Automatic annotation (TrEMBL):
Similarity comment: Belongs to the nucleotide pyrophosphatase/phosphodiesterase family.
Coiled coil ranges: none
Transmembrane segments: 407-427
GO cellular component, as recorded: plasma membrane
Signal peptide annotation: 1-18
Cross-referenced InterPro entries: Alkaline_phosphatase_core_sf (IPR017850), Phosphodiest/P_Trfase (IPR002591)
An individual GO BP term: purine ribonucleoside catabolic process
Native organism: Neovison vison (American mink)
Top-level taxonomic group: Eukaryota
Function (record text): Hydrolyzes extracellular Ap3A into AMP and ADP, and Ap4A into AMP and ATP. Ap3A and Ap4A are diadenosine polyphosphates thought to induce proliferation of vascular smooth muscle cells. Acts as a procoagulant, mediating platelet aggregation at the site of nascent thrombus via release of ADP from Ap3A and activation of ADP receptors.
Protein name as catalogued: Bis(5'-adenosyl)-triphosphatase ENPP4
Needed cofactors: Zn(2+)
Compartments where found: Cell membrane
Cited Pfam families: Phosphodiest (PF01663)
Amino acid sequence: MKLLVILIFSGLITCCGGNSSHSLPSKLLLVSFDGFRADYLQNYEFPHLQNFIKEGVLVEHVKNVFITKTFPNHYSIVTGLYEESHGIVANSMYDVITKKHFSDFDDKDPFWWNEAVPIWVTNQLQENRSSAAAMWPGTDVPIHNTTPSYFMNYSSSVSFEERLNNITMWLMNSNPPVTFATLYWEEPDASGHKYGPEDKENMYRVLKEVDDLIGELVHKLKVLGLWENLNVIITSDHGMTQCSKDKLINLDLCIDRSSYTLVDLTPVAAVLPKINTTEVYNKLKVCNPHMNVYLKEDIPARFHYQHNDRIQPIILVADEGWTIVLNKSLPKLGDHGYDNSLSSMHPFLAAHGPAFHKGYKHSTINSVDIYPMMCHILGLKPHPNNGTFGHTKCLLVDQWCINLPEAIGIVIGALLVLTTLTCLIIIMQNRLSVPRPFSRLQLQEDDDDPLIE
């Protein structure tokens, strides 16, 4: 009976399991449209993106890392690490030991990036492989003395078409071959900040332009013969939420500017006290009910945002839609950076190619899960990371994936089969053991003696 159960489950695994054998490494293109909020997919029309999804996979929500800003989340995607681990903890940073400053306008110093190893470096160091990048954050920096073989120095003035042309040229004509490439575009983030995500008219126009760019990407790959053999991931770093002039947190009403330095501003502000930390903390703590104030050691564990020297002694976290300011003006109608549990901060992920299923939808993964999945596709050994490969197995054709309802169904089905077989065996045994009617009574040898002498 045990052997029978083993054979049943072995058969199920053989039928449902994929081929896990690896041939030559696949090619992978990772694309980010900055600030592409997940529910834009439900609220606007994306004919080109929807066609891409129909032939591939969709993850409806990607839970990104805290803080939900551009540089930290792009680095988490390509390292699989929380911000406290990879060291890019904000778009603006200060290192108290070296006195160095980091910003999105001054980000070329490898010092800030060397706490982690991004996937393009790992891929670059493999034999007979190279990497390419079109303006993904960090790709124009010699991280661990390594840049992609082909990359573009960042400039927002360079068109999407030029970036795409370079990427496709490198994918087709490089030697050693480019097996990993990244492509970054600033929209819809820039327009989300300018108009706010609730400005339907302007966001409709901008998102249509983004969808047209996706159509241009797919068309280019098909014309060049790359479409069928190239794995393409389209995702983003964060979402966007609406801000309002009625939701301002004015720090100047609570504390004098001379008592602290503001390293990073709104909606997660990094505060470096110039005087006693406790005194600054106590003043900020009662500043506004729509702002949480944390000493570094008290930052909630779920943020994974505590164990790094670049995280300042006091962190301010505004409620969704609220803006931390030093005066009464509203800098942006839309913003991000808030608590990463908020659905408005989540992006999506869509993927197409030989590594992925066709027409499959998945509810959610974490952004740090993307890294081990990409390493698997490329046949790379991942560096230690915070991602879980098992969370993305259902997206991949070479992995056996089973969800909880299916698992319960299989177990129940197997138990029913086992129960039925057991009942049949018992019935057969009982039939064999029942004596036939009118059968002659068998006497023992000494029963031949007469009863009466």
